[in-house]
Amino acid sequence: LSLEPANKDKRLMKALRGETLDRPPIWLMRQAGRYLPEYRQTRSKSKDFLDLCYSPELATEVTHQPLRRFDLDAAILFADILLIPDALGQGVVFKEGEGPVLDAISDEAGLGKLNLDGVEKHLAPVFETVANLSASLADNVALIGFAGSPWTVASYMVGGRGSPDQRSVRIWAFREPDVFAKLIDLITEATVVYLRRQIDAGAEVIQLFDSWAAHLPDHEFDRWVIAPTAKIVSALRQSHPDVPVVGFPRGAGAAMMRYAAETGITAISLDSGVPVAWARENLQARLPVQGNLDPFTLVAGGKALEDEATRILRGFGTGPHVFNLGHGIVPETPPEHVARLVDIVTGWKV
Ligand code: 1CP
Fold it and tell me: Which atom of ligand 1 is nearest to the CA of 96?
């Protein structure tokens, strides 16, 4: 696979190749979503959230929306990490104001209801969205595809919903590690198929969201976070060696060192709790970093936003850096504050 000139010249691709730039590329986790009135408008045209994800025309539209307002360096495919459980045959419902609800799996019998065979066909509309985006984005904008990491996806499949401490999945993984491993393997396999097809359709970068990677003891972190992530990265390297993979082990703390060294990821996305000076020395010296502005500064705006954005620009300015948040934009964010942030970053000179 040869890189087209347009791809290799994009700011995001350069930073992910390890180049230190005059200013970092910027994109924002959850840059499409409820904080934008035009998103809420498009969303109201679909039956429910999953229907929006599976409607290539609408999903393409909402992916474009933030790029019409802001001078961002990348678009991220509009979809969700819970499309994988849905494609595996586990019922997923997004309840208004409540978030996702799934028929929780907690034993071998539950695993028996899942099936890999239908995954590719079920997710075909997503690949169509990626192809639409690849054909319609501006030349300087990179297209990011994504999936949840197996541990985080499993936490919803086992818990049946989001939870502050992932207690169901953590208890099951301790109690019956060899049965739980079958679930992790199944998600890993489905994710490789899913991401390969996204890349074939035009995704230029892949991000793996491990939003619930915090609080795991060493052995659990190695087995359920590092090992499956390494498997996915190595499979993608075999089929698509030039596509960078960004890992986001949110809240992993000091374990990020092992994560960065052992998964094979190209770059690491940092949550807001990671100290910049520590990350510069221990992570950015080895691989590009992404992050890590606190999303609540985008709600606050004003001086807090300016000061925090500038602190991160300075802190990571001497190495490869992708400007981003430490977690997704929250719905109450005023779009004007996002515009201000993008001005600060695109106007920055090292
Ligand atoms: O009401 C609505 O319109 C739904 C809100 C919404 C949106 C806009 C959900 C439900 N998902 C999304 C889109 C989404 N989800 C994207 C699109 C691209 C973009 O960033 O613009 C992405 C990358 C995700 C990824 C995702 N979904 C993650 C990982 C990142 C993170 O935020 O930690 C997770 C954990 C989910 C699960 C999910 N989907 C939706 C909700 C409300 C949740 C979280 C539930 C919980 O708190 O446990």
Answer: 1
